[in-house]
Amino acid sequence: MATLTGARITVTASDDQLLRNLQDLAESPDTTPLMYRLGEYFQGSTQQRFTSQTDPQGVAWKPLSPGYIKRKKKNTSLILTLNAYLRRYIQSQVLAADTVAWGSNRVYAAIHNAGGNGSGINGNMPPRQFLGVSDEDNAEVLAIVQDWLHRKMNGLPD
């Protein structure tokens, strides 16, 4: 009669280079190159929202007011786009080995993103959020991190 006492699989890493790479990663994980990759991704993802004209959750931006459409000289069918400066000035910046930021330095970026009471002809501006992180962004970030870890553990270039 046989008795079941358990089962076990043991895997031992015998590749010396892999072991050195894992040790290096554990001792000093310089994630700066990863932050650059994430910054590039988020910059592109944010710029893509100007094409889809949706917020990070996929909700369409509020349409332009009829009065503004009459005054707008070009790109009348595009929201948040007159000369495309806001979209073109979406940039990312690595702030530390574990921190990346992205956004726009345009003075009007905040009111377009969050909405609010403007001055002069702006009046009451509805929010048209272009900054943020979507579910798709989260999935892509996970893939980027996994690829980066794979490269680090196998001694491949960033």
Topology diagram in text:
Elements: H1 16-27, H2 32-52, H3 66-71, H4 85-88, E1 90-96, E2 99-104, H5 109-114, E3 116-117, E4 124-125, H6 135-153
Antiparallel strand pairs: 1-2, 3-4
Helix pairs in contact: 2-6
Descriptive notes:
The structure is a single chain. This protein has 158 residues and is of the alpha+beta class. It has one domain (30-153). The chain has six helices and four strands. Helix 2 (32-52) packs antiparallel against helix 6 (135-153). The longest helix is centred in the N-terminal third of the chain and has 21 residues, at 32-52. The radius of gyration is 24 Å and the shape is elongated.
Question: How many strand elements?
Answer: 4
Strand content: 5-15%
Low-confidence stretches: none
Q: Which strand order does the major sheet show?
A: 1-2
Structural class: alpha+beta
- Overall shape: it is elongated
What is the domain total for the residues? 1
- How far apart are the termini? 56 Å
Which range best describes the helical content: under 10%, 10-25%, 25-40%, 40-55%, 55-70% or over 70%? 40-55%
Mean pLDDT: 84
Helix-strand topology string: HHHHEEHEEH
Sheet with most strands: 2 strands, antiparallel
